[in-house]
Amino acid sequence: MGDRCRVYTDAPGARARAVDAAGRYDGLVKNLTDLGHRPLIVAAVTPLADDGATLDTDAIAPYVEFLESHGADGVFACGTTGEGVLLTTDERRRAASAFRSALSGFLVVHAGAQTTADTVALAGHAAEVGADAVAVIPPPYYGLDEASLAAHFVAAARACTPLPFFCYAFTARSGYPLPVDVIRRIAAETDNLAGLKVSESPFERVEPYLELGLPVLIGNEPLIAAGLARGALGTVSGMSAAFPDVVRAALDDGREPAMERLRSLRAAMESSGQFVAAAKHVLGLRGVGVRAGTRLPLRGLTADEASRLERETAEFLESPVTPA
Asked: Where does the chain show beta strands of DSSP type E?
């Protein structure tokens, strides 16, 4: 464990786990609020080799070094930007282990998978390798009812106990919303629900989650300012997979003009419809040793798309904001 900040160890420098009156572990949230700034957790890409066919664990450590030196407080591994649902369970375990070894900051492992069995296995593995938290998105494809969905999340949360557990709401990726009543059921049936990662938009779809009284990490970067104004904790950001310095600066600023800058950047990153490929292309432009390959059926950028991306992100690449 070294001197990494863990919510569940007595390692040097680690804070003791805080337990609230309801008996829920909120140590990770306490550690994030004690940073002295709003937390930036990077929804990292997963480095791949052989045109996306194999996991490139050797690229993870230098990638993490880039992220942490440009303002990241931690990594959200194997999420949407990390192509998690396209990786095998073995690849996801290996990626989680490699990120844990490389990181000095916080590691949140996304364990969401198509089946409850795989989700439980990945959540348990995250606890075994020393992750700081686990997050789970509703399983895609089938629109589950509230009873099925609650049972799935409760099983995952119990599998990683005592790690803090985060529910991940992103209708555009799961295919259906995560009802707030399901989150209330998860809270009632588990001891480790610590917060929410909310990537919904527009902001009206974020507000019901903010009203639950749980810590919220905003996923849609242009909504950060509105979220912070309503009590959100910080962000889990996909754009920061390639532009951690830009997102760090906007998060620290917290005002609407900074959000407009994020809107411009997000529009550029999404212009091809291939966000993950765009992030990996930008990392190459920035000298980070992450290859361009994505896992099929995701595709890479065409030459025209790459040229357009480079034009539209030029101002961010030429004048990056590097935190002190």
From this structure: 40-43, 48-49, 54-55, 74-77, 106-110, 133-136, 165-169, 193-198, 216-218, 234-237
